[in-house]
UniProtKB/TrEMBL annotation:
Pfam families membership: Peptidase_M28
CDD domains tied to this protein: M28_nicalin_like
Keywords, comma-separated and alphabetical: Endoplasmic reticulum, Glycoprotein, Membrane, Signal, Transmembrane, Transmembrane helix
Organism this protein belongs to: Loxostege sticticalis (Beet webworm moth)
SUPFAM superfamilies, sorted: Zn-dependent exopeptidases
Entry keyword annotation includes Transmembrane helix: yes
Spans traversing the lipid bilayer: 20-39, 508-529
Keyword Membrane appears in the UniProt entry: yes
Family note: Belongs to the nicastrin family.
All residue ranges annotated as the Peptidase M28 domain in the record: 201-256
Main location: endoplasmic reticulum
Protein name, per record: BOS complex subunit NCLN
Annotated membrane topology: Single-pass membrane protein
Top-level taxon: Eukaryota
Amino acid sequence: MWLDEADGFAEIFKGYLPYYLLVALPIFIIMSPVNPVAASHEFSVYRMQQYDLHTVPHGCRSSSFNLEGRFLTSWSTSRHCVVARVQDVSIDQFMEIRAKAGALLLVLPKNDTVLTPEEKEHIQLLEMAMIQQEVNAPVYFAQWTPEFEDIIRDLQHSFITDDKSGTALEAMFNSVSSNGYQIVVSATAPQKMDSKPTTLHGKLVGRAGAAQTIVVAAHYDSNAVVPELSQGADSNASGAVAVLELARIFSRLYSSPTVRGGPSLLFVLTSAGHSLNYFSVKKWLEERLDSTDASLLQDVSFVMCLDSISSSTDITMHVSKPPKPGGAAHSLKGRLRAPVAHKKINLADETLAWPHERFSIRRMTAFTLSSLQSHKDPSRSSVLDTASGGALHNLSANVARIARALASHVYNLTAEGSDEDLALFDDALGVDEAAIKHWYNYLSSQSRAPQTVTTTAPNSGLTAALERALSRYMEVTVSVHAVDKREPEYTLYSPTRAILYVYSVKPAVFDLILTLAIVAYLTVVYFAIQLFPRFYEEYAKIVTGKAKVH
């Protein structure tokens, strides 16, 4: 009886089962319990800076890509997106990636406060090298997450090059068994942004008949290789906060006619600063000096610019010309007890070194107070320029020092820097540390890159907040500057952020070998099914001793 049932089973294999099998097999694969969602990730990423300055392109020129991810040491062609921690990339490696790779994805440190001074300096120098010239491949930055760390670790250990493998068979096995990642960014093509930089200024008028004016200025935007992560706590949130606090302090003194100082005090906050060659200062000076009514800047005693004054309590006076003995700038230098760093203006450079040089070009006595020793300090344009408690303490101390020196000069106290004389102004000159902390944290908690600051309406956002703060102490004038569209001095580009998708995949060679294995498997199954009736006949002949009659 069982032989008869086996005969029926054998007949099935003579029918269309192989064709049904070919249809059913993909269905079984699709119904596999593997969850495809677990093999994909989505991240917010930030595009590298892109701008033109005097028609010279800088930064990243592309925005989209769909490439296989590879680690820093295993990529080889333009079909690869290099994925690495920013602290692991050397300047030479970046230059090679810039020339040959398809894209670059850099992961920022988990916590920049635990970086060593050497690591911070390395990252800052890398940022400077990246922004000096254009990069045709898309470059994105991502903040650290555990998922990104796992992806980097997988890429670091998955792709083993031939020179690290013992044999060719081992290299092929490593290539087949490794896990890969397909990295995709779909973003709009780079487009020009409508930039309208803004300048805020307010004036405390001195005693009647006193014509001299002292200008206190700072730019409130920041600069870094990643616009969306450009917080600029030291450069130059500290300078903007110092201008606001000095305006508050001297507004109290100038509110009473009996203690009002002789010279007028003009407080100025500008955008489009260091990275854009102090464009706002240039346009503001042109409007004020070249107009029919140039009374605002008549008889300027000196211009004091504040730039990066929170990294240390040591302040340096940067000048284009050494202050003349007996002059106002020399007087303030003595009261500050600050060393002088002399650097001539080099108009051949792409950008000016310090903000005071814009005023010096217009033949004004000007200088910059800064905690930095050199304008080439890489910390002026770094994503690592973030807020810290130590910097806040330095800022408060420096604002108090500058306020006392300026008051000593304004009121012409005989003993330069005399503590006895200045003790009379202790109450008025005391800094409001709570206000400094508030504005320092507020400014350094957000991006203040030109792509953010100069593309929003002047009556909204950060600019409006600064205007409201300054208007508490004086009447404020808002100047919006236009960029010549025919021959722009600078051009900004979007997008500045995008969504990055990471898909876990196998390498192409794995797909090839898997395809061959499936073909071989189906071939064996097909011939096994086709030959099963003949095998069964031979088996039945052996068991029964006679051939099966059909």
